[in-house]
Design goal:
Blueprint lengths: L4 E5 L3 H12 L5 E5 L2 H10 L4 E2 L3 H4 L5 E4 L3 H11 L8 E4 L5 H11 L3 H4 E2 L1 E3 L20 E4 L16 H12 L3 E4 L2 H30 L5 H4 L2 H7 L6 H10 L1 H20 L5 H10 L17
Parallel strand pairs: 1-2, 1-4, 2-3, 4-5, 5-6, 8-9
Antiparallel strand pairs: 7-8
Length: about 300
């Protein structure tokens, strides 16, 4: 089956950038956006979409591929709403930053057809501020695009992953410069808790701490160097998006925060001992390449 029409539910930064990217890569099909009227108006003016529709069910009419590019809670809601009414031939995918709860809900809605009808994804790209105004065609160039079906890389041998629609979608991602890899939802969420979600929480905590302690001091900006700017850049991120991430990856994020609390306590207690040097040396190991290799490889279609 060929992809001739795509519906993007959520035409903000990610959905809008995907639309611009596939158009720039030569996709000649129709792109229908689904969002609030004001957002759709801006997406049309930007040339990201060919048509806009507020109602998700109507927006999906005639599409072979439906991308859910909304916050995580809304993704789950749309799976429940759209799953029962869309044709079994329609492939639904998403761009959510956590995967376990999304995949679980898709399996509940689609049953045994879950892995055939829903393809969980996560582009590892974005900005600290969202919105269609921030969308750009090259946002995903050389960025990782995770595919996270139940079973991880072993899912690629299932019959549904040889279907032309799955393969065409993968080729579409590759055409926009994305580096497609496959991993299990569980492994994805645990790793992202440390490499993505934890940095956000640390940046937020650091910015809030500085605001409390020296935020009103007129000398603050004059004495601030690039380190503070670098470490607090993502503290501008909206709470609404991170609320859903915290709700759907709670245990992994709780564990990650606890580990950092322990590390910070160790640093505090060793400011004048060689233990501080040991922490610096351990930190430097992050910049060495991983020693182990496993199934975390690009899928072949």
């Amino acid at each position: 089956m060929q992809i001739e029409q795509i519906t993007i539910v959520g035409t903000g930064l990610i959905g809008g950038s995907f639309a611009l990217a596939i158009k720039a890569a030569g996709f000649g099909g129709r792109i229908v956006g689904c969002d609030r009227p004001d957002v759709l108006e801006r997406a049309l003016k930007l040339g990201a979409i060919n048509a806009g529709e507020v109602d998700p069910v109507r927006a999906c009419e005639g599409s072979q591929l439906v991308m859910l590019a909304t916050p995580i809670g809304s993704i789950i809601d749309h799976i429940e709403r759209l799953g029962p009414v869309l044709s079994p031939d329609v492939l639904i995918t998403d761009t959510g930053s956590t995967k376990v709860e999304i995949v679980a809900r898709a399996q509940q809605v689609f049953g045994d057809a879950g892995s055939r009808r829903f393809l969980p994804g996560h582009p590892i790209s974005g900005k600290e501020t969202g919105g269609i105004e921030q969308a750009q065609a090259d946002l995903f160039a050389n960025a990782t695009w995770v595919i996270a079906p139940a079973g991880g890389a072993s899912a690629a041998v299932r019959p549904e992953f040889t279907r032309s629609l799955h393969g065409e979608y993968m080729r579409l991602l590759e055409s926009i410069g994305a580096q497609v890899v496959m991993i299990s939802p569980e492994r994805h969420d645990r790793i992202c808790a440390y490499v993505s979600h934890l940095p956000q929480m640390l940046s937020t905590a650091l910015a809030a701490c500085v605001a409390d302690e020296v935020g009103g001091d007129v000398a603050r900006d004059a004495l601030s160097g690039p380190a503070l700017r670098d470490m607090t850049r993502i503290a501008r991120s909206p709470y609404g998006m991170w609320r859903d991430i915290a709700f759907t990856n709670t245990q992994n994020l709780h564990d990650a925060l606890l580990k950092v609390e322990q590390r910070l306590a160790h640093l505090r207690e060793n400011l004048r001992t060689r233990g501080l040097q040991g922490e610096f040396e351990r930190a430097h190991e992050l910049f060495l390449p991983p020693k182990a290799k496993d199934e975390f490889e690009p899928p072949k279609f």
